[in-house]
Amino acid sequence: MHGLAQFVAIAAFAAPAVFAQSAIWGQCGGEGWAGPTTCVSGSTCVESNPYYSQCLPSTATPTQPSEPSNSPSSPSGSGGGTPVSTGIVGQPTGPGLNLAAKKAGKKYFGSATDNPEFTDAAYLKILNDTNEFGQITPGNSMKWDATEPEQNTFTFSGGDQVLDLAEGNGQIVRGHNLVWYNQLPSWVTSGTWTNATLTAAMKNHITNVAGHYKGKVYCWDVVNEPFNDDGTYRTDVFYENIGIEYIAIALQTAREADPNAKLYINEYNIEYAGAKATSLVSLVQSLKAANVPLDGIGVQGHLIVGEVPTDLETQLALYASLGVEVAITELDIHVTDLPTTLPETAALLAQQQEDYQSVITACNNVPGCIGVTIWDYTDKYSWVPSTFSGQGDACPWDANLDIKPAYNGILAGFA
Ligand SMILES: *[C@@H]1O[C@H](CO)[C@@H](O)[C@H](O)[C@H]1NC(C)=O
Ligand SMILES: *[C@@H]1O[C@H](CO)[C@@H](O)[C@H](O)[C@H]1NC(C)=O
């Protein structure tokens, strides 16, 4: 029961900050990086991009797009960061989720988190473990209501706290998000706007927030959830006052504020073909045709156990074919009928394991799918139960911070 916590505690001591050299798979350079710039023996510091260099095994070629690899050998080959099997039934004996993703040629496996959770040391120990998570997304603290609660008054303390944690661990950060219809302060939603005044306010927000984190985040979800499920544009305050041009203006402004951040549009219910997916494809094509900066499509991946879309891989490949990278940005797979299924049956947990494996396999099979983020790793802090009554148990770790069969599904998906 408590084996995992112990296991993680041991792994945490091997975190890069403890040593003068970075561990295998650890960060070893990049803009703003103050940690070690040399790697332990058996690994070499390789630049991934201007803000992230990483210690890669000297013999590996992980920058190649993923060919499924079933090699049973240790991902590191040598070096101190490799956890050993706890030998506890049900506990992972695999290499950790981020290590599995890296071995498969992906950039990261990551988790969302939120500032109130930072008082929970047992939770943080696992979040800090770069064998499990190479990437962090702040669940709330970089959103508009958190960063600009009054017009032109900016507060970055919550976002900075998440960024500092990630930097301390050598984890990359997905900035989330700049323009969204939800979690807006009332001065935005209830303001009296013209096209010109709202465009100026939006640009000021993006310039300040993306400017504050310039060079420090891997990417931004610049526009979040622009479509209704029927494929029409969401008629939020931005659309109503600025028109669909708000999307291009937001992307251009973000590029100017942080030229090195990858710029994403992030959306849900695009895991399968349909009107919403079709509209997104048209939008991406028109933005590309107009030379608007756009680097990625975020496919959120809030799914239901037993209902993973069978065409997910096809959709990921379709988006990647548009000349953008693709990431699964908010994965969780929840149970819809908790009262009758608690405690979950073995069959339900097995189905969830299979579902996680299906999603990871889909990303693994599409070279343009660069990484996967789960929307927090534990049922203890999942957003699902408070949003959808009677639903939940969506994460690979349970509320006691013990792994569930879903964990092994993720490992198997990257194998
Ligand atoms: C988590 O990582 C941060 C940043 O490296 C560190 O300051 C904090 O002490 C760690 N917490 C735990 C519980 O490991
Ligand atoms: C708002 O202004 C922009 C130019 O900044 C223009 O492209 C767009 O069409 C205008 N939107 C509306 C709804 O008039």
From TrEMBL:
<comment type="pathway">
    <text>Glycan degradation; xylan degradation.</text>
</comment>
<keyword id="KW-0378">Hydrolase</keyword>
<keyword id="KW-0964">Secreted</keyword>
<feature type="signal peptide">
    <location>
        <begin position="1"/>
        <end position="20"/>
    </location>
</feature>
<feature type="active site" description="Nucleophile">
    <location>
        <position position="330"/>
    </location>
</feature>
<feature type="region of interest" description="Disordered">
    <location>
        <begin position="57"/>
        <end position="96"/>
    </location>
</feature>
<keyword id="KW-0624">Polysaccharide degradation</keyword>
<dbReference type="GO" id="GO:0031176">
    <property type="term" value="F:endo-1,4-beta-xylanase activity"/>
</dbReference>
<feature type="compositionally biased region" description="Low complexity">
    <location>
        <begin position="61"/>
        <end position="76"/>
    </location>
</feature>
<dbReference type="InterPro" id="IPR017853">
    <property type="entry name" value="GH"/>
</dbReference>
<comment type="similarity">
    <text>Belongs to the glycosyl hydrolase 10 (cellulase F) family.</text>
</comment>
<keyword id="KW-0119">Carbohydrate metabolism</keyword>
<dbReference type="GO" id="GO:0030248">
    <property type="term" value="F:cellulose binding"/>
</dbReference>
<dbReference type="InterPro" id="IPR031158">
    <property type="entry name" value="GH10_AS"/>
</dbReference>
<dbReference type="Pfam" id="PF00734">
    <property type="entry name" value="CBM_1"/>
</dbReference>
<dbReference type="GO" id="GO:0045493">
    <property type="term" value="P:xylan catabolic process"/>
</dbReference>
<protein>
    <recommendedName>
        <fullName>Beta-xylanase</fullName>
        <ecNumber>3.2.1.8</ecNumber>
    </recommendedName>
</protein>
<dbReference type="InterPro" id="IPR044846">
    <property type="entry name" value="GH10"/>
</dbReference>
<dbReference type="InterPro" id="IPR001000">
    <property type="entry name" value="GH10_dom"/>
</dbReference>
<keyword id="KW-0732">Signal</keyword>
<dbReference type="Pfam" id="PF00331">
    <property type="entry name" value="Glyco_hydro_10"/>
</dbReference>
<dbReference type="GO" id="GO:0005576">
    <property type="term" value="C:extracellular region"/>
</dbReference>
<feature type="domain" description="CBM1">
    <location>
        <begin position="20"/>
        <end position="56"/>
    </location>
</feature>
<keyword id="KW-0858">Xylan degradation</keyword>
<keyword id="KW-0326">Glycosidase</keyword>
<dbReference type="InterPro" id="IPR000254">
    <property type="entry name" value="CBD"/>
</dbReference>
<dbReference type="InterPro" id="IPR035971">
    <property type="entry name" value="CBD_sf"/>
</dbReference>
<feature type="domain" description="GH10">
    <location>
        <begin position="91"/>
        <end position="413"/>
    </location>
</feature>
